[in-house]
Amino acid sequence: MKKVLPILLSGSLLAVAANSNGQAKISQDSLMRYYNRLAKGSDAEKDLLSDKMYALTKSKKETDWLTAAQYFYQLKKGNLGDSIRTAAEKKFPVGIVVRNKSVETIYNENDPAKKEALYKAWEKKFPEGKLDNDRIVYDYARNAVGTAYAIADNLPKALEYANSIVSPFWKGQGWAGTAEHIAKKGHTAEAKVLLKKAIEDAWEFKTTRKNEEGARFAALGYPGYLSSYAQLLYNDKEYDSALVYLKRAEQAETPVRPQVNEMYAKVLLAKGDYPEVFARMSDIAAQGKLNSNNKPLLAAAYAKVRNDNKLESYIDSLKSGLDKKMQEEFAKQIIQEPAPGFTLKDVDGNTVSLSDYKGKTIVLDFWATWCGPCKASFPAMKKAMEKYKNDPNVKFLFVHTWEKEADAPASAKKFVTSNNYPFEVLMDLKDPATGVNKVVDSYKVQGIPTKFVIDGKGNIRFRFTGFSGGDDAAVAEVSAMITLANQQ
């Protein structure tokens, strides 16, 4: 019999546990930590990990195959990972890969009765709990059915599915989503019940249940649920009660999310507290976070407090210190790293290289057509471009990456053209040999939108992810980084 030797990790044995037969086995968590360490290690360690993943493809367990695919993706062998998943579909016809692929038919159906029939057939073919403990896959499917019924105004079915969610950390999300849809159909009382449950659930995950799995995600919705509940109270003209919930939402996080600020101003405006609305919205304007939703609130309060027609001048005066404030803030965040070079095709098939813009300050924006926050930032990016349209030493490049469409260049071009964005869009498509989007990978991007500011010497001076939510603030951020990059 072949002798089994323990695997060494950093000079100590990996954790082992006794199975039902008394035999030692490596714990799954320890094994994953070991694999992760190899994935981040030297070339020799990565080769060792690759050998271990090849060995897993000889297993009779689909989960081993999927582990192998996962780590081949990390090793930049995406095509091999794809091949393993494709082979798994044939090897395990009622397995995890096929189940997760088959669920798409439920999402793609719009008719609620047909959607429910598809769900029941799918659940019968892939019984919950048989393949793995990933209950959330079934919760997503149930939620899709319930949402369809809510949109169709079938209240009993919508509530049935809203209350069928089993993953503890996702119950609040399911209740709140259904509440939003049924409230639009006039079912305010039922929507309030669901939102109260979501609020209480999220509060528990913030406090007494904060160490449970998924607690951070479950607690994240707390301010939003409070604001949504306040909206229903506002609709019923229960303004004082709405303020109680908004106060809780305001105290729950810093900075306060725009949704809460806007709802607060709406309630105060309805109560006739114009000075408070004026002060609150003026502060938002000073931060550069006015938008089409909240600017009318400031306008209404301004008309009562100032009683003149100089709103725009007032807003400009509030923003006067924004550029200086942003420069002071971003001066603390400046870095200096060589920017990886690249050569890509634009949406029209023309070849563009980063080296073409040597000596210029580059704003590099990684995005995708499926990325909501990316697209939300584009009006601000258009304004930023307009600010520098007469400066030949500043260039904006928008790199579309992590594509999901069959014809990503055509999709990207259609999006920017239909929205009149004057962007130069480059396509960072998957490498046919590795399945990796090389440019976004070389910039070590973890999520999009991510933007870089590169100075004229080819060094990355700033890296920032996400979108602040206000056009003026976003323009000021970009402007501050360009200014600081040019001063170095």
UniProtKB/TrEMBL annotation:
Limits of the Thioredoxin domain: 333-486
SUPFAM superfamilies: Thioredoxin-like (SSF52833)
Entry keyword ATP-binding: no
The protein's name in its UniProt record: Peroxiredoxin
GO BP annotations, alphabetical order: response to stress
CDD domains per UniProt: TlpA_like_family
A GO MF term: antioxidant activity
The keyword Oxidoreductase belongs to this UniProt entry's keyword annotation: no
Entry-linked InterPro entries: AhpC/TSA, Thioredoxin-like_sf, Thioredoxin_CS, Thioredoxin_domain, Thioredoxin_ResA/DsbE_sf, TPR-like_helical_dom_sf
UniProt-listed Gene3D superfamilies: Glutaredoxin, Tetratricopeptide repeat domain
Signal peptide residue numbers: 1-17
Organism: Chitinophaga polysaccharea
Keyword list, A-Z: Redox-active center, Signal
